[in-house]
Amino acid sequence: MSEPATTQLRRVDLHTHSCCSDGALAPSELVSLAATRGVSTLALTDHDTLEGLPEAQLACEQHGIRFVPGVELSCRWQEVETHVLGLGIDATHGALRSLCSQQRQRRQARIEAIGARLSALGLPGQVLVDGALGAAAPTRAHLAEGLKRHGFAASAQEAFDRYLARGRPGFVAAAWPSLATIIEHVLGAGGMAVLAHPHRYGLSGTRLSELTHEFKRLEGAGIEVSVAGMSPAKTSEAARLARRFDLAGSMGSDFHQPGIPWRPLGRLVKLPEAVIPITARLA
């Protein structure tokens, strides 16, 4: 007897991160953990880098997991930082690889600017920057971990709250490309563009509808509806947007490391009624 559809849906995870961006595990280690969690379809979607995809693909083949090559790309919509998942991309596509290289340069410039602000506060900014720049996609999370490691914060979250979040003394906005540019590159690489974690942008219902409408107009294909940590109310809101704008629903844990209970790898719920799963549209 085949397993119920709900069980199968729980085993799809299309939003994960490895140590190639700001995750803790190597791509192969992430896949091994996914296998123990019963994940049958997995996407690696590191921030603005394709570096971990070959290793993850090989590991998925070894574990019998369907692999979806992906990436999470940073962009801006009306000066709001937004994130787009590119799923089913061709990781060898020249223009996409060039974009990721440019994104790394933007990330490096931002990290260095934040480091200068931290130094002005009497913190070891350059030491923290040097540690962060070793990553393929350096992020504020690397600086947060550095602040924790050097005893300037009890946790990475406290480091964000005290120094790195918007409005805090170390915050520097990034000069990300436009939403249109990012979607264009995803489509050019043969992928499907998915609006990531819509509940995290702090937008009103009206503004979120405007963003989703623009996303669809630019040929976006899906929206994350089932994301670890999303409240039932926000899930319902995302489902309404998916139905209203004819977008497929995507699901993912946004996994970064073991031990974070609200981002458990592969532990997802079924999509709300009448929302088409993005997996039905992936080749």
In words, what does this structure look like?
The structure is a single chain. The radius of gyration is 18 Å and the shape is globular. 41% of the residues lie in helices and 14% in strands. Strands 1-2-3-4-5-6-7 form a seven-stranded mixed beta sheet. The protein is an alpha/beta fold. The chain has a single domain (5-99, 176-280), classed as Metal-dependent hydrolases (TIM Barrel). Helix 3 (53-63) links the parallel strand 2 and strand 3. The chain is built from ten helices and seven strands. Mean pLDDT is 91; it is low at 1-9.
Output the keywords.
disordered N terminus, single chain, 283 residues, alpha/beta
**How far apart are the first and last residues' alpha carbons, in Å?**
26 Å
According to CATH, what is the class?
Answer: Alpha Beta
Approximate strand percentage: 5-15%
Output the structural class.
alpha/beta
Largest sheet: 7 strands, mixed
CATH homologous superfamily identity: Metal-dependent hydrolases
Count of helical regions: 10
Low-confidence stretches: 1-9
Oligomeric state: single chain
Give the SSE string.
HEHEHEEHHHHHEHEHE
CATH architecture: Alpha-Beta Barrel
**Radius of gyration from CA coordinates:** 18 Å
The shape is globular
Number of domains: 1
